[in-house]
Amino acid sequence: MNLSMSQQNYILEKLKRQREEAYTKTQESRDEAKKIKKYFRGDQLPEDVIEVLKSREQPIEWENIIKKIANKIMGLKLLSKQEINAFARQVEDKAAASVITNVLRVSQDSTEYWSYKKRADKDLLLTGVGIMKPVIKELGDVDLLGKKERDLRYYHLPLEQSFWDPYFINPDGSDMRYFHEVRLIEKEELYEFFDYELVDKIPVVNDVEINEYLVEQNGYSQRVKITYSWYKAYDKKQRRNVVYYCIWGDDVMLAHRESPYNMNRIPISVRRVNDPDCDDLTSFYSIFRDIMPIQDRINFTHLRIANMLGSIKMIFESDAVEDAETFIEEFGLDDAMNSIETAHGIRNAEIVGLVGDYHPLLKART
What we know:
The chain has helices at 5-25, 27-41, 47-56, 65-79, 94-108, 111-127, 187-190, 196-200, 292-309, 324-331; strands at 129-142, 148-156, 162-164, 178-186, 208-210, 213-215, 223-235, 240-249, 252-258, 269-272, 348-355, 359-365. Helix content is 35%, strand content 25%. The strands form 4 sheets. Strands 3-4-7-8-9 form a 5-stranded antiparallel β-sheet. Strands 2-1-10 form a 3-stranded antiparallel β-sheet. It has a two-stranded antiparallel sheet with strand order 5-6.
């Protein structure tokens, strides 16, 4: 599709606004998902808490119940793998159902598919969103009927790289108006597919924050920010919504074409754990949202108990011991037995009453 420079600028500006809307409307949910991922990796304690523990020479420890639950669920999913079968509702559709079943089995009968499926399931579990996209490639051969053979593959898209229409309603996101995939790609790889002059116009990313992750490029790699966009636009001539895809970087359009797929939807599936509420359509969350406060409480309790057990707090009269520093040092040893001098002539003490329920009032007798 040949577009004038003004048309390209109009489309690029439109795509930028879409991507910005997708990020800002879901930013709160993304921050929560990012925190849960950190907890899953074991990064649970704030920096100020870690500094206090280091100053005490106390071990830095945490109880990772999120990882325990997540690993159990993912393990059960792997053990319960099932084959997909397509059944015909009518007799004349039986042959088509058999073909569809074989196609699905072939596309899923690979280590690569299950690897991406595992990543998508993990993202769905931890962040509340799982995203998969199909890619069809022509193999260059033909079958017995003379039709071109094609290879169908499924790939997982991480949450941090994906920006979708936040107002979609359908469970699989089939009613999305747009979807943007942001990638950092080695600049030299683009020369194989696009015009050299266009690629050279895209600036190299250098120590800037791209949406949710910080990029620091002080080494050999020269990467550029590329967005692979799918969007719907109404065509007045055809009187229908048309799906387009566009590959672009900053203010440079590398490719813009109509979708090659024979369906009026964006060919990407976005699954959410929660069904959108009428008063909050754009948010998403994982099953660990309600476990996070419990996890924080467990960590706080463990660290407090460890600090109490590993510390010594006592009050003694200065003239009850000859060398206070030696007494404190020896008292902190395991199985310590220390003697003190009689202070102020006190020989013994007897309980003469109780204050409240717990505290004895001691009366000294000389």
